[in-house]
Amino acid sequence: MHFSIIIVNYNLSNEVRNCLNSLKQFVNKSDFEIILVDNNSDDKTINEIAEDFSNTSNFSFRFIKTVKNIGFGNACNLAAESANGTYLCFLNPDTEIKSDVFSFILDKYKDPDLTKGIAGFNVAETGFVDYSAGYFPNLFFEALNIFSLGRVFEAFLVKVKSRLNKKDMINLDWVMGAAFFINRDLFIELNGFDSDYFLYFEEMDLCKRAKNSGAVVKYFPSVKVDHIGSAGSKKNYYFFTKMFYKGKLLFLNKHSKRHFLYIYQIFMFLHILTQILLWKILSFNNKSKSQGKISAFREVLSHLSSPQNLSNNPVQI
Fold first, then answer.
1. What is the mean pLDDT of residues 130-134?
2. CATH T-level assignment (fold) for domain 3-227
3. pTM score > 0.85 for this model?
């Protein structure tokens, strides 16, 4: 079997249904199985969706339901344990496949340079920037990010590099986890996603360890995958803000030299202060969103040097 498509859901049943429906058109074109993991969603509609696809689909479909929310990376690892495909395809539930990316990537994996590597697609391009992939954190980006400009400038560079490159793939440090492929043998060699990450930055960490092992990370800007983005985060700004910064701090702790880490922590401290000020100003427009974000920022500030101690609890204390 060529592909094992892994989708992890948490309270996005409608998006999962659309994602699964988008995959149906490629059943006769590609050899794949689908493994859907539900992270103990409150919305039980996902059970009905899974039953519908189990009974009516003419492709291999498995449904795994966890007894608690174990996080994105751990849920992916759980699914990968029973995966049969040569390549793993990780899809966010709020994505929809509109073109035959499977035949495309299967052809690309014939390239010896990519045989054991990671491949990502265009999932977050807009205007003059492209957030679909990027570079590992560095002092320049993090200094700019004090005023939230680092990621924007990084996304601008990705867009420029894509435009200047005449090939349909470019080398980058990481690709967004919303839609990417990885050779299953490589995934196993890397022991999958790092279980310390609950949500966010687990794909960057995986790419970092892959590159450290000698594997390549390729981005295909010409291949578009529809991605809603932030479908889950809009339901709990406190939780997703906290998880984003926890993930980033974990990555910096794991992959930065000590003297650089201290500088990153100072930059992060200043960035969070500017964010708190910003969201206090914006509270008149959306009070609940501002309160959630500010609470998350304050909690992160108290764990800048010990992000592993940040709780994964989605409820504000």
1. 96
2. Spore Coat Polysaccharide Biosynthesis Protein SpsA; Chain A (3.90.550)
3. yes
